[in-house]
Amino acid sequence: MASRIDRISHTVKKELSDIIQNKLKDPRIPEMVSIVSVEVTGDMREATCYVSVYGTEEDKARCMEGLAAAQGFIRKELGARLNIRYTPKVTFKLDDSIEHGAHINLLFKKINEGK
């Protein structure tokens, strides 16, 4: 059975994805942004959101700037959607695990072709 924090983390992840994809109009944030995971603290006052961005390093940096600039708006939207006492303060961190996995997959493909 999932704990309350796990359920809230999952809900925050789902709502953040919707807010970023449908509500934010910042040109710095590309369409290929995905929320990899969200970790909410035990007191539910802070949430760390791991974001994967498809593009160059410059695109990633601009996207993170855009998300940081939109933190207030995102928190307000999140508060309107969640039915909890405190709306967590959202911090965004870049996660390159998807790209790392794709690189490893490419290396395995090269190894298998060499046989």
Task: Report the uncertain regions.
Answer: none
Q: Report the sheet-strand fraction.
A: 15-25%
Radius of gyration: 16 Å
Tally of distinct domains: 1
The helicity comes to 40-55%
| Main pleated-sheet profile | 3 strands, mixed
Distance between the termini: 46 Å
Q: What is the highest CATH level, the class?
A: Alpha Beta
From the 3D structure, determine the CATH topology: GMP Synthetase, Chain A, domain 3
Name the CATH architecture.
2-Layer Sandwich
Structure summarized in a few sentences:
The chain has a single domain, classed as K homology (KH) domain (GMP Synthetase, Chain A, domain 3), CATH 3.30.300. Helices cover 52% and strands 19% of the residues.
